[in-house]
Amino acid sequence: MRYRATLAYDGTAYQGFQRQSGSIPTIQGAVEAAIFNASGQKVNVSGAGRTDTGVHASGQVIAFDVEWTHADQSLLRAVNFHLPLDIALQDIRQQPGFHPRYDAISRLYRYRVLIAPQRQPLLLTRAWQMWNGLDGELMEQASKLFIGEKDFAALGKPTQGEVTIRSVYRSEWVSQQNEFGTLWTYTVEADGFLQHMVRRMVAMLVQVGHKRMTVQRFEELLNRAKLVEALAIAPPQGLSLEVVRYNE
């Protein structure tokens, strides 16, 4: 039976989602090991997105095939029992023919930037921390240039094939004050993303927010449709895959 599940994890201790050779720790490898320990069956887990090393998720969607004669919730509990504390299934159900990647119509990521006068150890793995303030109006103006169907080759390489055209549906910044300082949250939703695309988007927007890049220069680089190797990549710890949407 094909099972569909929502997975949450802290990616700090893992070399990304996708299984790798040897004993390299990955999210996929940990989940497959937990399912084997719970069921005695080797499975291949597929995911909606291949998150990078150190990237988190609260809404990653996975699927796997396993023979299980008990209730769905008992499978969830059994798998979670064998998972490490930084990974956990949030829900599970049977869905024949489901594929988390190819059936998805969009993915929503959030990236968090903390502006604080001192380093905040409790948020070390949750946000990109910096001391200099950001110009929110400029960042919001630049972020809207991502919206629409465009060739995003300037921001990354495709994970499969050669097509670099993607449709971005949402791209926006919001800020709020907390006990540590100012927390900026960038939300971006698209039908798909290139490798390191979100982290390059954030890095460019932060440069605009620091007035190290003009909005005009930002637009010129984006419209090149050719990978700009010199572009910075934002660190992974601020990024989280939060929602994957399907036609349901």
Walk me through what this model shows.
With 248 residues, the protein is an alpha+beta fold. The chain has 2 domains: 2-94, Pseudouridine synthase I, catalytic domain, N-terminal subdomain (Alpha-Beta Plaits, 2-Layer Sandwich); 105-246, Pseudouridine synthase I, catalytic domain, C-terminal subdomain (Alpha-Beta Plaits, 2-Layer Sandwich). Helix content is 22%, strand content 31%. It contains 5 helices and 10 strands, in the order E-H-E-E-H-E-E-E-H-E-E-E-H-H-E. It has helices spanning 27-39, 72-82, 136-143, 197-209, 215-223; strands at residues 2-9, 46-47, 56-65, 87-94, 104-115, 128-130, 148-151, 165-177, 182-190, 239-246. Strands 1, 2, 3, 4, 5, 6, 7, 8, 9 and 10 form a 10-stranded mixed sheet that branches. A hairpin with a 4-residue loop joins strand 8 and strand 9. Helix 1 (27-39) crosses helix 2 (72-82) and helix 3 packs antiparallel against helix 4. The chain is globular and about 60 Å long. The two termini are 20 Å apart.
The CATH architecture of the largest domain would be: 2-Layer Sandwich
Q: Give the helix tally.
A: 5
Q: What's the number of domains?
A: 2
Let me know the largest β-sheet: 10 strands, mixed
N-to-C series of helices and strands? EHEEHEEEHEEEHHE
Low-confidence spans: none
The average pLDDT value, as a whole number, equals 95
Rounded to the nearest angstrom, the radius of gyration is 19 Å
| Multimerization state | single chain
Q: Report strand %.
A: 25-35%
